[in-house]
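Lab notebook, bench 4. The sequencing result for the construct came back, and we need a structural model before the next group meeting so we can plan mutations. Quick request posted to the team channel:

Model the 3D structure of this chain.
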Amino acid sequence: MGEYRPKDQKFDVADLRLAVIVARWNSQVTEGLLQGVVRVCERQGAAPECLDIFRVPGAFELALASQQAARSGRFDAVIALGCVIRGDTPHFDYVCAETTRGISQVALDESLPVAFGVLTTDTLQQAIERSIDNAENKGEEATLAVLETLETLKSIWNVT
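Done. Here's the predicted structure in token form:
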């Protein structure tokens, strides 16, 4: 069984620089995810200017923007935020699969933590429940995941 890390875990956020790539499609959801990112950074004591926010049309465009942010050399990590809601066509499956593949490929190719904060839900209500200010906010989870990954990589690299 995995180790449980509480949401109030403190991370080293001194001089932290995060690129947050936010899809505009389903903005009522993605803006809630973004607010989750901001809340975590505030709780961690990160400087307000640690976040650079970039917007793209939809989930499919998250990978390319994440790649470019990673390649810029300006950021310690990238957080990709989006929302894809299942419809009546196979479009959902293609977008979800390629978005997932693309974002994970960026992390591997660029050797930089890239958090996957993309909701893939059956309904708008499910997406809203995972994007409001509650314990289930996936923007918060993605931010905590990227902060923990940065901490782990620092340990691997033995960087203080």
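The chain has five helices and four strands.
Will bring this to the meeting.
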